[in-house]
């Protein structure tokens, strides 16, 4: 697939956006992006990646980064850019298409009835929506000949997930940089923005004068105060306060997920097996 438009069709704005990534935001976006891919071995020669673009700032940046990497990579891999239309309004879809054009991202839409189904759910609509979205994306990616899907989860999502699990789940769990699919054998999910901070993404958006909408879910306003959304917002606010006294607090939390000392842990799970420190005491 040709992931770059011919030069005569590219706008000056597109060139400026790419230049900003490789120059102004090289230290805060491009290098962490490359670091995450190398550190967690997210790409292998011959991979065919379906970049899942929801239309928000994170996935749009991911698409642009993957496109730039594709043009500079010293080993071959394939790219497709897919967007699931779960029931967007014409205005919401139009905004996504306009942003994709500005970034020179050749999106391919496919339609589903996710929003309609989720709107009828009595409990946990956001959880159901996420599960359904991922299933549709895996299926579409596999039909397109891809072996991996890439999503726009970033460093800040990882840190917030750790705290949400500790505070509300009573577990120490994080968001992994890559996962093998249980329902689609041979498929894998990767998160190339794993080392990119959300603050850097927001700065990039502002610098380039870009505007991205929210998830466009018709239940978004209704669910603005749902338990899950409220908890994540509370964690964001807590981290914002903690950073005033310790600017490196997010980095420390992130590093803790790589430095778990099992000799000082009361218990842990490995697959279906639960291990207690008493087992070997």
Descriptive report:
- This protein is of the alpha/beta class and 281 residues long.
- 46% of the residues lie in helices and 12% in strands.
- The chain is built from 10 helices and 8 strands.
- The strands form 2 sheets. The chain has a 6-stranded mixed β-sheet, with helices on both faces. Strands 7-8 form a two-stranded antiparallel sheet.
- β5 and β6 form a beta hairpin.
- It is globular and about 65 Å long.
- It starts with 11 loop residues before the first helix and ends in a 5-residue tail after the last strand.
- The N terminus is likely disordered.
Q: Helical element count?
A: 10
Gap from first CA to last CA: 57 Å
Sketch the topology as an H/E string, one letter per element: HHEHEHEHHEHEEHHHEE
Largest sheet strand order: 3-2-1-4-6-5
What's the topology here?
Layout: H1 12-22, H2 26-39, E1 48-52, H3 57-72, E2 78-85, H4 90-102, E3 108-111, H5 114-118, H6 125-143, E4 148-150, H7 155-169, E5 178-180, E6 188-190, H8 198-207, H9 227-245, H10 249-256, E7 267-270, E8 273-276
Parallel strand pairs: 1-2, 1-4, 2-3, 4-6
Antiparallel strand pairs: 5-6, 7-8
Helix pairs in contact: 7-9, 7-10
């Amino acid at each position: 697939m040709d992931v770059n438009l011919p030069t005569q069709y590219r706008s000056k704005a597109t060139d400026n956006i790419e230049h900003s990534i490789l120059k102004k935001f090289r230290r805060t976006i491009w290098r962490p992006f490359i670091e995450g891919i190398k550190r967690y071995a997210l790409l292998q020669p011959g991979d065919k990646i379906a970049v899942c673009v929801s239309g928000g700032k994170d996935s749009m940046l991911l698409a642009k980064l993957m496109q730039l990497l594709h043009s500079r990579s010293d080993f071959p891999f394939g790219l497709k850019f897919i967007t699931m239309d779960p029931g967007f309004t014409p205005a919401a879809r139009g905004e996504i298409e306009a942003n994709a054009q500005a970034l020179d991202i050749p999106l391919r839409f496919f339609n589903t009835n996710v929003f309609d189904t989720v709107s009828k759910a009595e409990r946990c609509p956001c959880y159901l929506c996420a599960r359904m979205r991922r299933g549709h994306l895996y299926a579409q990616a596999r039909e397109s000949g891809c072996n991996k899907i890439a999503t726009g989860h970033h460093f800040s999502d990882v840190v917030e997930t750790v705290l949400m699990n500790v505070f509300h789940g009573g577990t120490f769990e994080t968001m992994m940089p890559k996962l093998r699919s249980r329902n689609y054998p041979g498929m894998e999910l990767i998160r190339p923005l794993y080392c990119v901070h959300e603050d850097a993404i927001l700065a990039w958006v502002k610098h380039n004068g870009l505007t991205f909408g929210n998830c466009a879910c018709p239940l978004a306003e209704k669910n603005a105060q749902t338990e899950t959304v409220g908890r994540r917002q509370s964690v964001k606010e807590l981290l914002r306060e903690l950073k005033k006294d310790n600017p490196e607090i997010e980095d420390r939390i992130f590093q803790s997920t790589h430095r778990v000392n099992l000799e000082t842990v009361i218990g842990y799970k490995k697959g279906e097996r639960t291990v207690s420190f008493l087992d070997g005491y």
